[in-house]
């Protein structure tokens, strides 16, 4: 009797991890042999014509591996990307919620609008700036990654959808080189523990596998009062080699929670200089609190529910993929990449809002709240006196006279950001030097999220476990009860679907041994459907929150608090909410033309001109006048923003010295909506710049690597605000750089990563700015033997206080702004054991 056994992918992964002794480890190239292949000789596999090496390709491309990344002392995936030339990766939000852009293309809001983040050649999300669903929230760097490869501009416009600025691709280890490692790391000056592992090798002569992942727990790099970084990831792939190519299966499971840090009070110390406010250091503390972790709130339809602030950014991903790479006939190559992903989670964190008076003395809050309040009959309240007391924590019930802030609790459930993506292509190499690629891309992206109630609290401004406050007027009316000012500030229910299809074609010509040119075109079509139901600002239904049988001030939907917020809770019924249908098709044609001149084996000149598009997706619904009542597009938008880029570059690469230089000129359209300020705009930006990237093996022991980017950018037009035309876009510095010197011996290595920027304006009005800075990250490794090593790395060793963004564009010295600073100094000790 023949038994047929069926294994799911996770079962295979576990078996691979636990049964390594059953797998025959055939002879494989050593790590040293694999790394001997210089980077400039590696084939470019990301968003570029096939078959070209990094030296030959007429695009700006960078690549680095685990050894390069560890020198950056990264505390998040976004910090890994900061080493790429021309990339601005602002990682001030913690383990996710980063802002990422490239080459002077605007960083108008969160996420990575014009730059896609890929895993193994397919996007994590079709759109990198989904509200509360940034792509970096659902990806983690760990030892499953063999290389990080980035294409800046160029062919990214035509070899990927919605990524005219470029593509960052995290390429997985596949187990071709056998062996593994296990390691632990500990926060020396903050609370975090992490375990990483990887293992791979041959199952048989024609089959190999790789499994890797991590698990972690701890408070994270800032004091929150609780363990907010909890979870892990496992990734597995198995490859079957065929006579004419390979078939590879991928599986990933991510279940992780990280604290995220939103703009909070920062002191303006001087022109471009910032620091902590009394009792609160935003670079090392957070306004999250052990006293305020569990909150009783309401869903979008007015039903009571409990939420745990400790969930922070909750990321749940289960994905399965297949890659088929075959030579199906003589010089005819088929490549198909497929992945389906279930993606869900949440986003909850305190945001310091500006009402009623912004962060400051609590007496200002009490007086302003009372003056702006009306009872359910429209009558003003008695504001002769007000009383403020602590509502919870130490000293509960005692009078409070310190500083306070308004916490607008960003509370979003990620119901479904799942997608199914397939990229199919055929490439034919002809004898006359012509190379033809035709392909078809399909993506189905869900965007289903719930912005539930977004309660508003008044709390003490304290970095060591902020407490809730009670505020009453002279008649004993609760203006704030147990910290609660508004039970339901807003509720938005998103249920959207975007289907993208894109046929594309590339023709390459090898005119001679040293002249290569190519031209490509892509036609993207987006079919958008769904609905947004929303209500703001305050409730439309009375609700007895404290259960005393009386509808009080903040429970009364007819009452007004803080000048404009209704009491009660929101019930998103059709009669009491706004609705926007989405039902439109949009299309865009992208193209790219480039060429390389190989002056020698080590020198290349290249040039390229590209035009690419980015579908605007969910943020289009926040911009008035862009959609008709029936969901079709109005004449104000095509549904796409475009980017045009011209680049001219030079590459020099040998085993000892690598230098890349690229001159670029970029024009970008941007239709955008900002959640925190409510700002919407339609703009055009222009940028000219120069990228340098280099690596110098000065001696057998000393290596210097780095990059430097100069950018001259301006806002060239704005439909709504002509006053800012000609200004420098927010957060755009003239120069950014990463320089990494390292000294290596047989038993130890030591080095530093210097990451810096010249000054930049924090808002588009070009008033308030952050002065220039250099962050010093230190790293050292000691190899006890060939297998066991101990490493220490320090991020921001000099403990610089640097803000990446601010809600305010102008402020006087001595005042507070709401800003996001980079982490202060953090230190990690790591132990790693490698084995065959």
TrEMBL record:
Coiled-coil ranges (or none): none
Keyword field contains Membrane: yes
Span of domain TonB-dependent receptor-like beta-barrel: 360-796
UniProt keyword annotation of rRNA-binding present: no
Membrane topology classification: Multi-pass membrane protein
A Pfam family of this chain: Plug
Endpoints of the signal sequence: 1-24
GO molecular function, one term: siderophore uptake transmembrane transporter activity
Protein name: TonB-dependent receptor
